[in-house]
Write a structure and sequence with these properties.
single chain, alpha+beta, Alpha-Beta Plaits, 2 domains, three-stranded antiparallel beta sheet, about 25% helix, elongated, Nucleotide-bd_a/b_plait_sf
Length: about 140
């Protein structure tokens, strides 16, 4: 078990709950405000949502609260911490993008980044794999 928990929580099997309903449920459970204290990204293609906390929160405790929450159980949703990773894939990049630009962009603290150890550009897919020096440098 990592000493540092992920700031993101995955909600699976979200098809029975609209995105707005999910946001309200998360506000009710956490006592926090969406778009101020946390963000919610819905990935409908795989029936998942990811809540990422901006405010410092014990996400392990939050997952436990969610697993015990009546409404989430009624919706048959499951929750878990999002695994920490050092590598991300950036997609739908412009044709003219360079590895140097991506490195500078993802190293920017303003963008939530951190030191980048490697950038692999795949122009034929308009994508890139960015590897950070540690898992803290990606959001």
């Amino acid at each position: 078990d990592s000493a540092e928990a992920s700031p993101s929580v995955v909600f699976e099997n979200i098809e029975r709950c609209s995105p707005d309903c999910l946001r309200m449920l998360l506000e009710n459970i956490s006592g926090l405000t969406v778009d101020v204290d946390f963000t919610v990204e819905v990935i409908s293609e795989i029936n998942v949502a990811v809540a990422t906390f901006i405010k410092s929160v014990d996400t392990k405790e939050f997952v436990k609260k969610c697993s015990q929450h009546q409404r989430l159980r009624e919706f048959k949703m499951t929750t878990r911490l999002l695994e920490l990773t050092q590598t991300i894939k950036a997609e739908k990049l412009p044709d003219s993008i360079s590895t140097d630009y991506l490195r500078v962009y993802f190293e920017s603290a303003w963008n939530g980044g951190g030191p980048v150890s490697d950038v692999q550009l795949f122009p034929e897919e308009n994508s890139a794999i960015i590897t950070f020096c540690d898992h803290k440098g990606n959001t």
